[in-house]
């Protein structure tokens, strides 16, 4: 059974500790996909939720001291119950608070997947990109950052951008679908983290799950633009519709390159 069909037949329960700015968009996106979101803000329900959850999303976009405690409690119980955890280190490196928070979460708990944009993941990897000369390309930069991040943490990673790069255990790939309007709305990347988690929750193969998740998400963006989209404002509802209306057939158009 395909992952998309599996998600829709038995919706995974995805607990989202996420950016306040994108909660509505993330919830609607997950529901449209077929998953079942819970937006939790209370650490005292961590034990109960992680006994029934299929995935935990940690997005630090609007983190504060209270949410730091919430995130720690949720991940601790997720780890106890073998619930997969996706970490989105939004704005990593922008402030010591964000950096210390992410560093502590990675150090103290089991994280199953890390997803961030090129600047966030470059800062997280702690490495300077070497692909900056005439040979530099979007693809080579994204893949290099993903490799450096994976090597540092030994955790599968996704680096997003015009080209998306995934590095997991024994696998390296770049993905080449999507549309520029994804970068013109708030929460596109944040929702992607939740969508990837829904796919991961339905598969034992993180690499293939994320390839299909990112490809589906980006192809839905391409599909949305074809549906009378005039700009960012009309793109958002069309994007939500595309997540709902499309199925596995759209994946025939995915563009994936596998690297040695």
Can you describe what's shown?
The protein is α/β, with parallel strands linked by helices and 260 residues long. Helices cover 48% and strands 15% of the residues. It contains 10 helices and 9 strands. It has helices spanning 3-9, 23-33, 46-52, 65-80, 96-108, 118-125, 138-153, 188-200, 206-225, 232-245; strands at residues 13-17, 36-39, 55-59, 85-88, 113-117, 157-160, 164-168, 171-175, 256-258. The protein has a 9-stranded mixed sheet, sandwiched between helices. Helix 5 links the parallel strand 4 and strand 5 (113-117). The radius of gyration is 17 Å and the shape is globular. The model is unreliable at 130-136 (pLDDT under 50).
What's the topology here?
Elements: H1 3-9, E1 13-17, H2 23-33, E2 36-39, H3 46-52, E3 55-59, H4 65-80, E4 85-88, H5 96-108, E5 113-117, H6 118-125, H7 138-153, E6 157-160, E7 164-168, E8 171-175, H8 188-200, H9 206-225, H10 232-245, E9 256-258
Parallel strand pairs: 1-2, 1-3, 3-4, 4-5, 5-6
Antiparallel strand pairs: 6-7, 7-8, 8-9
Helix pairs in contact: 2-8, 2-10, 3-4, 6-7, 8-9, 9-10
- Which class do the helix and strand fractions yield? alpha/beta
Radius of gyration: 17 Å
Helix content: 40-55%
How far apart lie the N and C ends? 29 Å
Strand content: 15-25%
User: How many beta strands in the DSSP annotation?
Assistant: 9
What's the order of the H and E elements? HEHEHEHEHEHHEEEHHHE
Structure described in brief:
The chain has 260 residues and is of the alpha/beta class.
Overview features:
nine-stranded mixed β-sheet; globular; 9 strands; 260 residues; 10 helices; alpha/beta
């Amino acid at each position: 059974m395909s992952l998309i069909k599996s998600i829709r037949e038995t919706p995974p329960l995805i607990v989202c500790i996420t950016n306040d700015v994108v909660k509505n968009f993330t919830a609607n996106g997950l529901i449209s996909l077929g998953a079942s979101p819970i937006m939790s803000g209370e650490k005292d329900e961590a034990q109960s939720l992680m006994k029934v959850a299929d995935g935990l999303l940690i997005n630090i976009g609007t983190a504060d001291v209270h949410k730091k405690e919430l995130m720690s409690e949720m991940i601790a119980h997720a780890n106890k119950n073998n619930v997969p955890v996706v970490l989105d280190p939004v704005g990593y490196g922008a402030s010591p608070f964000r950096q210390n928070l992410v560093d502590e979460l990675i150090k103290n708990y089991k994280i199953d997947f890390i997803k961030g944009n090129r600047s966030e993941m470059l800062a997280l990897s702690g490495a300077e990109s070497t692909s900056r000369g005439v040979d530099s390309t979007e693809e080579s930069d994204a893949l290099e950052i993903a490799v450096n991040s994976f090597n540092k943490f030994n955790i599968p990673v996704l680096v997003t951008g015009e080209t998306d790069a995934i590095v997991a255990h024994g696998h390296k790939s770049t993905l080449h679908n999507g549309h520029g309007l994804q970068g013109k709305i708030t929460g596109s990347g944040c929702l992607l983290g939740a969508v990837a988690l829904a796919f991961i929750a339905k598969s034992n193969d993180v690499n293939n799950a994320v390839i299909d998740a990112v490809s589906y998400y980006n192809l839905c963006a391409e599909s949305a633009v074809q549906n009378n989209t005039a700009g960012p404002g009309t793109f958002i509802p069309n994007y939500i519709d595309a997540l709902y209306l499309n199925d596995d057939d759209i994946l025939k158009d995915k563009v994936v390159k596998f690297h040695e």
